[in-house]
Amino acid sequence: METLSAHDLTLGFGDSIIIDGLDIEIPKGKITVLIGQNGCGKSTLLRSLARLLKPKHGQIMLDGKEIAKLKTKDIAKKLAILPQGPVTPDGLTVYELVKQGRHPYREWMKQWSKQDEEAVQHALTSTNMIALADQSVDSLSGGQRQRAWIALTLAQQTEIILLDEPTTYLDMAHQVDVLDLLFELNEKEERTIVMVLHDLNLASRYADYIVALKDKKVFAHGKPEEIITSELVRTVFDMKCQIACDPIFGTPLCIPFGKGRCLFANEQKATS
Predict the structure, then answer these.
(1) Distances (CA, A) of 39 to 10, 201, 232
(2) At what angle do helices 114-126 and 142-155 cross, to 10 degrees?
(3) What is the biggest distance separating any 2 CA atoms in the chain, rounded to whole angstroms?
(4) Fewer CB within 10 Å: C terminus or N terminus of the chain?
(5) ABC transporter domain spans which residues (predicted)?
(6) What pTM value is reported for the model?
(7) Which residues of 208-240 are buried (b: 16+ CB within 10 A; e: fewer)?
(8) More confident residue, 235 or 170
(9) What does the pLDDT look like over 226-258, one tens digit per residue?
(10) Which helix (H) or strand (E) holds 180?
(11) Distance of alpha carbon 241 from alpha carbon 223, whole angstroms
C-alpha cells in the first residue's frame, strides 16, 4: 500500500509563506481530514501533496520516493486528486468524463483495452452512476455531478485519493451521500482518502484521523475523539463552543456559542 508524507515542508506564493516547516504522515488505508480556518493552507497543502504546487523547501515522499523526482504518469497511477469545483467541458457525458481517468495508462497508438473498460464500469458502478452514464454532466444535480467526478478518480485506480472540499455547495442530504460513498470506498477497497472539510461534525463522524492546521503548521493531529475539544476549537477557529457526544455515532459533536433563538433563555436568566 502506498505511503504519503511531507517533511519540513514550506509552501507559498511569491514572498507569501502559507505553510512553514510542516511535517505530516498520512495514515495508510484510512480517512484523513484536514481542518482549520479559511486561508490556513489546507487546499495549498493538498495541492502540494499531489505535486501541483512546488515546495519552497522540504520534501514530499510517495511510497518512499521524493515525489518531485517521479514521472507524472507514475504519480497518476498512485495518487488521484479532485480539486474544488472542477469544470466539465460542455456536452461531455458521464461516461466520457470517467474515461479520462484512464489517461495515465494510455500509450501512443494503444487501443482502448478490456482493462480500461472494466475500470470505467467499476467506477460507475461503485458511485451508482451506471444509469446516468450517457447523460451530459451539465444536466446533473450537484450531488450527481460530484459522484461523476469521484468516479473519474476511481477509474484512475489509485490507492490514494485527495479531495478538496468535496461537499462544497451541496445540500445536507447530498453532503452525507458523497461522504457515505467515500466512507464505503475506504471500508471496502481500503483506499487512502485525504480530504478538506469545513464541517467539524461531519469531519469527526467520517474521519479516522484529523489534522488541524494553525499558524502555518500542524497544530494537532489524531483520532477525532482524542483531539476535538473546546480548547482546540477556540484556538484553531477562534470560536467558543461546547463539545458533546453525538447521540447516534458517539463521535465529537461541536455546539458553537453565539447569538440565536435560545429555548432555554428564560431558564438561564432565572438561574444567573
Answers:
(1) 15, 20, 18
(2) 150
(3) 80
(4) C
(5) 4-240
(6) 0.91
(7) ebbbbbbebebbbbeebeebbebebbeebbeee
(8) 235
(9) 999 999 999 999 999 999 999 999 999 999 998
(10) helix 172-189
(11) 19
* CA distances for 259 relative to 240, 262, 265, angstroms: 12, 8, 11
Residue 270, pLDDT score: 45
Strand order in the sheet with 192-196: 79-82, 160-164, 192-196, 31-35, 209-214, 217-222
CA atoms of 131 and 124, how far apart (whole Å): 9
Residue-wise pLDDT for 135-149, tens only, equals 999 999 988 999 999
Amino acid at 176: V
The helix-helix angle for 172-189 and 142-155 (nearest 10°) equals 20
Residues paired with 27 in a beta bridge: none
Q: What are 140's three cell numbers?
A: 446533473
Residue 102: all three cell numbers together: 484512464
Predicted confidence at residue 272, as pLDDT, reads: 46
H/E element, 94: helix 94-99
φ/ψ (deg, to 5) at 248 = -100, -45
